[in-house]
Amino acid sequence: MPSLFDLSTHFFLQLAVLLVVCRLVWPVFRWLGQIRVVAIMGAGFLLGPSVLGALWPAGQQWLFPVAVDTAAGRTTHPSLAILYVVGQLGLVLYMFLVGAGFRTEIFAAHFRVAGVTAAAGLVVPMLLGGAAGLALIRGDGWFADGVATWQAVLFTAAAVAITAFPMLAWMIDECGLAETRVGTMALACAATDDAVAWILLAAVVAGSAGSMDGAVVAGIGTALFVGFMLTAGRRLLRRLGGPAAADPAQPIAPALLVVLVVLLCSAWITDLIGVHAVFGAFVAGLAMPRGPLLDMLRARTEPLVSGLLLPAFFVFAGLNTDLGLLLVHGALLVTAVVLVLSFGGKFGAVTLAARYQGLSWPEAGALGAFANARGLTELVLLTIGLTQGIITPALYTVFAVMAFATTLATTPLYRAFERRAGAGGLRFGADGALGVAVPGPGSADVGRRTGSVAQQEIAGLRTVTPSGEPGIHPVCPDEFDGR
What we know:
mainly alpha; Na+/H+ antiporter like fold; disordered C terminus; 23 helices; 3 domains; two-stranded antiparallel ribbon
């Protein structure tokens, strides 16, 4: 068993290698039209047994050991446990930042549209996923022994219906859509889908333990927790955003302590009731009062979280994915079917529902594209299914490939709809594709085509592009800065 000193020094090396690999693969993913989080996800898979393990098995096993021999037998290597915990911390902190930046007023203005769209994007994929689970449980090698048919159906329904809330939040932020109707509704739909998926998973895990109490606790506990945090909890936390927070001469340590305690306790509570820590962290961010304190926290912590802590999770997920398993048990055919059902079900249901609610085709298509960003949360769900003895490594790999493929398609598909809107001079804003791009200096028809600057500002569209010129809400930043 390695010593504490060995574990810490090895962990530092693991993170250093991960950051270097992320930087090396980023130009390739950028050329493919992707954003940084997809590159980090790809780096995690590259460092796992599927690529590095196939090219250099001894080196990969030394750098990222997953098991160790002890007197009691073979067990999980402590190094793997460290990566898991650090990755979970990164997830929790990042989802808190997402909740802190969530535009509740935009969501409230479009609550009915978001509700119908979220319902369609949940029910249709669940039905398709349940049908896939019903077929897979009748075969061999997909689910662990003793898993009941209803458990297989619910698990695959959740796996197909889920949207990666943290992954989507990253995409929304990097594409400059955090304050638009598209971005806000996409996050709202993802929050709904993920909450239901975690409750379904809780039911499956509870059934494995021989009791359905866990599912009941998850459902009731989630409603009580959200209700408290967004009412009484929000009122109590408003004191953090008072005048003292705006005074740079005042110490912020007590307020910071309160924020961190609320965040960690929220993550602990939702983990305890079976709805995963990331959901609690997001709700804690929603409940926080907006103001200088929260802005300062977001500015100081986001680079560390997204650049150092969160990538550890993708390495952990990559270590559990072995593409060699796709060559047995007809897994390639199963992967193709799962991919078609997952992508088609989500994209089709969300796009048609959004269009039926009155959104334009580009905006509805953009929502459908974002709904397929499954990456991170899908991997969390699969990891729980694998560690709880519900699915086999083969099915884990099938759904992991599906998660990576659908996430890979998200940004290029969104940009295609963005270009379609842009062909008419439109950009996604607070109320959809409303504004017309501001012409360059000296244009004679500025007033006729765009209206006044004040009108654009009221619509929530007017921004300053990286070049310094005024314009409508920008497209993804990496198209400007060459990242």
